[in-house]
Predict the 3D structure of the following.
Amino acid sequence: MRTTFLLNGSEITAETSPTTTLLDWLREHPNLTGTKEGCNEGDCGACSVIITDANGVRALNACILFVPQIHGKAVRTVEGVAAPDDTLHPVQQAMIEHHGSQCGFCTPGFVTTMAAAHLNGATDHDTQLAGNLCRCTGYAPIIRAAQAAQAAPVPDHMRDTSLPFAQNTSGEPQAGAEPPTTPDALAHWLDQNPDGTLIAGATDVG
């Protein structure tokens, strides 16, 4: 299945199985291994990436996203948070200055989540970081880092946009292809696709 999206600012097309997770694809194909596999169930946040689409910017767990679900969207991993000239993002610099990392395994997920919050201007840091677990540093220095970075300007390279074609279930750009948005439309879609599987968060089915 072909899926086209922006990855760290560059448009790419991936050929994958429909059930390949974004986490597996990132680690195995472009070798973006900064995105970590922790629980592989959407619980720990080690695999957090930044997703931009028509609904805005969010930090999401790559381990429970199938690659076709990001068709037409923008994905930014921890490798794409620093500027192209290697200038650190304000949250990266703050994590260094406030000693927000110890073993470092969870740090990429924290950085991407913090960068998404920073881009959105969110300052409710406890809530923003509620999906990220740290087992050794403790949360106080991480929260201090988020607070220290919150007033810094958003780097220009972080302002991704999604690709200008409709989302659809096939992973292919098709004019006018829209997902069902009402119960009746969903019932019609299921009638036309009797072998289809409904996926919400994908924590169990995935």
